[in-house]
Amino acid sequence: xHMVFLPSIKMRWKNLFSISMELSQNSPQMLFSDSLKKLxxxxxxxxxxxxxxxxxxxxxxxxxVNEGSIFQNRFGVFKHSDWIGKPFGSKVYSNKGGxxxxxxxxxxxxxxxxxxxxxxLYIADISFVIMYLEVVPGxxxxxxxxxxxxxxTSLARAVAPHGHIYTFDFHEYRAASAREDxxxxxxxxxxxxxxxxxxxxxxxxxxxxxxxSVFLDLPQPWLxxxxxxxxxxxxxxxxxxxxxxxxxxxxxxxxxxxxTDVRTxxxxxxxxxxxxxxxxSCQEHDNGSLMGPPKKRKHTNEQNKDEKLMGQAxxxxxxxxxxxxxxxxxxxxLKCV
Length: 337
Description:
337 residues, alpha/beta, Vcp-like ATPase, Chain A, domain 2, Rossmann fold, 3 domains, seven-stranded mixed β-sheet, four-stranded antiparallel β-sheet, 9 helices, 17 strands, 27% helix, 30% strand
């Protein structure tokens, strides 16, 4: 069964390799094209740029740099004019000596700071979707619905420089807000936003057999699956995101007619805090590992003063803010005829 998919996959990765080689010779940038220069890691900050203000891992904000403007937080007042000309990643100081970092608006950071018009996909789901949909430079991807544009921004980077994302949302206000966000992050040349009820009307016929991949984030995805099958190239891939298992069951039933290799995943992410701590009476084993303080024993005051030794140890523990269930990802591949 899987042998029929192999030539297509090989061609995609061959194209990816040739594009990467060409770009690596012409540009030192990590990202692929001039259309994404606002996401570059190596250029200097200019007036009008979107930047991410990083205070700590859970406190970040996206703002536009303007000559004469200021940014104020608990660390003091920061002048935008002090940032202009500095490279992304710089540490900048306030009038009180406090500091923040000025970071480039990568898709990963944008996911953490964007306005939540709808429930969004986070990094664990996004990375899995891009890999399993085999999204590479040059791909044409159809998406519905757009929502807050979290996934769309990452898809745009994946298809650059010659691919394109056509994303649809039935809500006109959300579509307009998404367009503004794509302008801010500099991926607007790679993304076209349309207003359309994909569940009721299906995808536009002009994309028939043109799409490499389709992504669905809809309340009733099974209604859009027949249209998606007509849009995909043979051997193309589809992914449907659903928060409830009942939605998954109905979607899988609809996929049986035209798709094969149907699989459903639930991505659970567990993060750890790893930091150095100070401990008392650290004793070291022969193998170099640390053991905790000994059990309490009665000592005189002089003994306590002499035997209280301070040491450094590395402690790892699960984060208190672990994310649980976000949704189910169902993947399928269009049958070859």
